[in-house]
Amino acid sequence: MFKNIEELIEDSKNYSSVIELMIAIEMEQTGRNREQIWEMMEHNLETMLDSVKKGLAGKKSLTGLTGGDAKLMDDYIKSGKALSGELILGAARDAVAVNEVNAQMGLICATPTAGSAGCLPGVLTSTIKTLDLSHEQQVEFLFVAGAFGLAIANNATISGAEGGCQAEVGSASAMASAALVLAAGGSAEQAGYAIAIVLQNMLGLICDPVAGLVEIPCVHRNAMGASQAMISADMALAGVKTVIPVDEVVNTMYNVGRSLPAAFRETAEGGLAQTPTGRKIMEELFG
After folding, report:
1. What is the rounded CA–CA span in Å between residue 151 and residue 82?
2. Could you point out which of 22, 140, 166, 229 has its C-alpha 20 to 30 Å from the C-alpha of 182?
3. pTM of the predicted model, to two decimals?
4. For the chain, how are helix, strand and coil distributed in percent, rounded to 5?
5. Domain count, the chain
């Protein structure tokens, strides 16, 4: 199995695609056959699409801290006034929708974590129509994202408690950007550049959940992650390359995460969690 993104790209040349490489690895590691693995990924896709739909209903979370923003964004898009356009704001909207469902204790698909679960479906759902993606291609989108996500996880971390939000939303955004590049007809090499572009611009992003809950600022950060994934994919497809190789960027993310004080790694002891308002919310909820 590939150890990093460079090896992933190289190994995929021995298969018909990154998709087939990832399926082969899943078959080898799980003992399941191709049909079983495909069906499991279809279930993941159905869960994602359903969570986007539910998130647009405008329901509040159990704490009342989040919920309704996805619907506000949806209404704004429908007004035709969106400055960033329907595609990018649509990705942000759907990312918010998924994370609002997560805050409601609803069913979501962790990609790669629950706190960063909105980026990938946000990017996917907003581009299904633009790229005319079939059901099969949507499932393939997830296999590609999973392959690149696996390479990131093996060389860094996807945990906010270990590496800050750069590791969670950063990794999710990177996975989405890579999958989008290939879905749009780009190469695996371009997908690697898209990941590098995303991550080098998220280095140092802290994890500072208000009251220790995966709501503020987590929900909105997924919107930003989805937006960055879209832009990074476009940059890579345009031919933009990074000077620092993608695996060096991934390793840097890991090293930066290890350097972050504990206050900035999901402990709610720093950042927005320790603002006057953040502390007030904590006291009101937990005394």
Report:
1. 35
2. 166
3. 0.97
4. 70, 0, 30
5. 1
Residues 34-45 have a mean pLDDT of 99
pLDDT of residue 282: 98
**Residue 198 structure tokens:** 């995303």
What does the pLDDT average to over 259-275? 98
Give the number of other Cβ atoms within 10 Å of residue 7's Cβ. 13
Range of the domain at 267: 5-286
Instruction: Report the pLDDT value the prediction gives residue 167, as an integer from 0 to 100.
Output: 98
Of the candidates 227, 225, 174, the residue with the CA atom closest to the CA atom of residue 196: 174
Residue 265, beta-bridge partner list:
207
CA distances from 35 to 12, 21, 39 (A): 20, 15, 6
Is residue 265 classed as helix, strand or coil in its secondary structure? strand
Which CATH number do you get for residue 242? 1.10.4100
% of residues, the chain, pLDDT over 70: 100
Distance, CA of 39 to CA of 143 (rounded, Å)? 12
Whether the pLDDT of residue 1 is over 90: the answer is no
Burial of 269 (0-12, 13-18, 19+ CB in 10 A): middle
